[in-house]
Design brief:
There is one protein chain. The chain has helices at 13-20, 60-79, 82-98, 100-111, 115-135, 174-186, 200-211, 227-236, 249-260, 284-296, 316-328, 348-364, 414-422, 437-446, and strands at residues 26-28, 31-33, 40-45, 50-56, 142-145, 152-159, 163-166, 190-193, 219-221, 242-246, 265-269, 274-278, 306-312, 367-370, 385-388, 405-411, 426-427, 431-433, 453-454, 469-470, 473-474, 487-494. By secondary structure, the protein is α/β, with parallel strands linked by helices. It folds into two domains: 8-270 and 473-491, Aldehyde Dehydrogenase, Chain A, domain 1; 274-461, Aldehyde Dehydrogenase, Chain A, domain 2. The strands form six sheets. A seven-stranded mixed β-sheet has the order 14-15-16-13-12-18-19, sandwiched between helices. Strands 9-8-7-10-11-21 form a six-stranded mixed β-sheet, sandwiched between helices. Helix 3 (82-98) packs antiparallel against helix 5 (115-135), helix 4 (100-111) crosses helix 5 (115-135) and helix 10 (284-296) crosses helix 11. The protein binds NADP nicotinamide-adenine-dinucleotide phosphate. Residues 166-171, 175, 193, 195-197, 227-228, 231, 246-248, 251, 254, 269-272, 303, 400, 428, 468, 472-473 line the site of NADP nicotinamide-adenine-dinucleotide phosphate (NAP). NADP nicotinamide-adenine-dinucleotide phosphate (NAP) is lined by residues 166-171, 175, 193, 195-197, 227-228, 231, 246-248, 251, 254, 269-272, 303, 400, 428, 468, 472-473.
């Protein structure tokens, strides 16, 4: 069992200062409030397995109070001029950029990724506020003459109303801002339930938004150790109009079922099983560079992470060897150290899951090129691992690994690899490496996914529509499409005599 040692030797004065700056209460309707039963939940640093903070643990009653506040604020908020809503986002964006180092340290402390990556996430998260500050003033309707020439067809876009957002631990800030940004821009009020393991970043963001002028009631942030008890009554409440969830496919399916009773507008951004396809005409060194990002960004704990590598049989061995060489050179450790390139996984269960998948792949006939041995020391680490000759039936090619493991399978023809990758139940991200334009166009069109990285290992961009198909969910976040998730279209039939 981990123990609360917030002033123990593991935490530096800088770390204690950044933890001390965050409000640990609920941000309920715009005010900092204790949980109704006074309970708290513990937040751990996964690199050392030590509790670093206690935050208020919201109850169902707190959830109802937050929805009361959201409903009370909705009408005035929807009427607030779009420019004012946009400027709140713009101010919050500026503060996030100014405070990127503090936000990064906080994120690394609660989630484990290296500081440089947390800094990138803070800036990426802020980009959603900048992008949607610009979209707030571009919400438009249409005016048309009906085919009969008599009637006029007028459409307008209106905010859907109070929203519930449920976010995962792997990107503690960005998974929130890509929902909060468009909702603020559209004029919706909202309740955010961050992951229990990483609530601190979202609580810090609540204060930034309050300081930027977000009116009371528009946002609540409610960490809880009882997600179902908090969110089920909200989803069943007819006053809620929209649910946006990012997380696992299993939980997403349950929430979609619950949402059916009130016919909520729903967006679900779920799990992935991204293929990383390298054809024999690819620039192999470039493919290895991009594989490092696609596989290891966020400690391998990203829904877009390259989960299964399909490398043409003619280049599979050199690809595996070069990737393994880069993996061996990684500095693994506590992310707060600037030299660290790969941090811990989120918890011990995650390490066990990754280790189990690797062990089963080896039993299936895969060979270990590097790594492959579990580390049971302090913190929740798993070594960067490359597996070659992974047979196509191996479970590691079907399940989300969520760790620094690259399983490599080979293929002979374009048809074979397309059939293999499209047989997955998931359809979020994919990566394709080839120098042939014809092949690139063919393969991009035929992949059953929401996103393709063409000779690129990173997809995330606030200006692009992020999302998946099949068991990876539905709805899009970011880009022009992102705000549509928060708008209803109203049509007025106008009589012109
Ligand atoms: P998770 O277990 O599904 O949890 C996600 C969120 O749902 C957390 O806030 C969790 O709360 C909450 N939750 C869990 N059970 C719930 C219930 N019965 N009712 C209401 N809320 C519930 O997923 P995770 O392990 O945190 O995140 C990893 C998953 O997210 C991966 O599958 C990854 O691919 C996916 N993901 C997808 C995207 C995308 O855009 N497609 C982006 C990032 C991550 P607790 O924290 O209390 O468990």
């Amino acid at each position: 069992m981990s123990q609360a040692r917030p002033d123990g030797p593991q935490l530096t004065p800088a770390e204690l200062a950044v933890l001390g700056d965050v409000h640990k209460d609920l941000f309920l309707g715009g005010r900092w409030t204790k949980a109704s039963n006074g309970a708290t939940l513990s937040v751990e640093d996964p690199a050392i397995g030590v509790v670093i903070a206690e935050v208020a643990d919201a109850t169902a009653a707190d959830g109802t109070r937050a929805l009361d506040a959201a409903v009370a604020a909705q009408v005035d908020w929807a009427r607030t001029p779009p420019r004012e809503r946009g400027e709140i986002l713009r101010r919050a964006y500026e503060v996030m950029v100014d405070k990127a180092d503090q936000l990064a340290l906080l994120m690394t402390l609660e989630m484990g990724k290296p500081l440089s990556e947390s800094r990138s996430e803070a800036l990426y998260a802020a980009e959603f506020f900048r992008w949607f500050s610009e979209e707030a003033v571009r919400i438009a309707g249409t005016w048309a003459t009906a085919p009969d020439g008599q009637t006029r067809l007028w459409t307008m876009k209106q905010p859907v109303g109070p929203c519930l957002f449920i976010t995962p631990w792997n990107f503690p800030l960005a998974m929130g801002t890509r929902k909060i940004g468009p909702a603020v821009a559209a004029g919706c009020t909202m309740i955010v339930k961050p992951a229990a393991q990483t609530p601190l970043s979202m609580l810090a963001l609540a204060q930034i938004l309050a300081d930027a002028g977000l009116p009371e009631g528009v946002l609540s942030v409610l960490p809880t150790s009882s997600p179902q008890q908090l969110t089920a009554p909200l989803i069943a409440d007819p006053r809620l109009r929209k649910l946006s969830f990012t997380g696992s496919t299993a939980v997403g399916k349950k929430l979609v079922e619950q949402s059916a009773h009130q016919l909520l507008r729903v967006s679900v951004e779920l799990g992935g099983n991204a293929p990383f396809i390298v054809f024999d005409d690819a620039d192999l060194d470039h493919a290895v560079d991009e594989a490092m990002k696609a596989k290891l960004r966020n400690n391998g704990e990203a829904c877009t992470a390259a989960n299964r590598f399909y490398v043409h049989e003619a280049v599979a061995r050199p690809f595996a060897d070069r990737l393994a060489e880069r993996f061996r050179a990684l500095v693994v450790g506590r992310g707060v150290d600037e030299s660290v390139m790969l941090g811990p996984l989120i918890d011990r269960a995650a390490v066990s899951k990754v280790a189990g998948l690797v062990d089963r792949a080896i039993q299936d006939g895969a060979s270990v090129v590097t790594g492959g041995t579990r580390d049971d020391g302090v913190g929740y680490f798993y070594p960067p691992t490359v597996l070659a000759d992974v047979p196509s039936h191996s479970i590691i090619l079907r399940e989300e690994i969520f760790g620094p493991v690259a399983p490599i399978a080979t293929f002979a023809t374009e048809e074979d690899v397309l059939a293999e990758v499209n047989s997955s139940e998931y359809g979020l991200a994919s990566y394709v490496f080839t120098r042939s334009l014809d092949r690139a166009l063919r393969v991009c069109e035929r992949l059953d996914v929401g996103m393709v990285g063409l000779n690129r290992g990173v997809l995330s961009n606030a200006a692009a529509p992020f999302g998946g198909v099949k068991a990876s969910g539905f709805g899009r976040e970011g880009g022009r499409e992102g705000i549509e998730e928060y708008l209803d279209t109203k049509y007025v039939s106008v009589n012109v005599s």
